[in-house]
Design brief:
Helix content: 55-70%
Number of strands: 4
Number of helices: 9
Largest sheet: 2 strands, antiparallel
Length: 255
Amino acid sequence: MHPVLLNFGHVTLPTFGVLAAVGLLAGLGLSQRTATLAGVDLERLWDAGMFMVIAAFVFSRVLLVVEHFKSFRAFPVLVLAVPSLTASGVALTVLASWGWLRWKGIPVRRAMDAWAPCAALVWGFLALGHFAEGSDPGMVTTLPWGVRMAGEGLALHPVALYCWALAWGLAMFSYGRVKKGDAAAVTLVAAGAGQFLISFVRQPGVEMVAGLDALEWVAVGMMVVGGMLWMKQTRATKTTEDGGPSVRSEGLDLR
């Protein structure tokens, strides 16, 4: 594993941080292409993407400080340097981004379709970052591609690499679905199903609710939301083919 990319005296450049930054830039750049395919204004979607990135950073740091306030008071710089994008931070970012899209009058459904391959691309870079720092350990395996992480004597499933393969495959597949208007639904369902299956070879989280850990519940939620979007898209397509008016719901442009 290579958690540190470069050292400049007292300044350390973490591999995860570098890959995360590259992934965000790549995702924002790709959004300029997918915005055109989805029929969304380039500049408005770029602004919304920048808002999402900033919101994710702010929410993750605020939650980190709240949860570890004593450590933050003693070592503020060290605490703020810890990667901290949790399920709660993602949920708050999604809600804030939804509010931004509504405020700016950007069709939520089209923005989601444009962002789907971009999000998968960013996820791929984050997965590589987790692999580099060894922060997403898998269960013990005897398979030939098992990896030995620092402090582990046995070979483990390279869960982060499984996520990387899933993410990059989804990025390429969903890119071709943007113009068809179902990229978000396909990506959410496939990513959720993939994450849930991968969880069987990932070391489980500490806290369990109804037999599932936090990541598994997130995966279930992704599949549910993706399925709802798919059904809405199917009804919209059927109505259009029957010659009826286009189907819309509050905050969602289903054209």
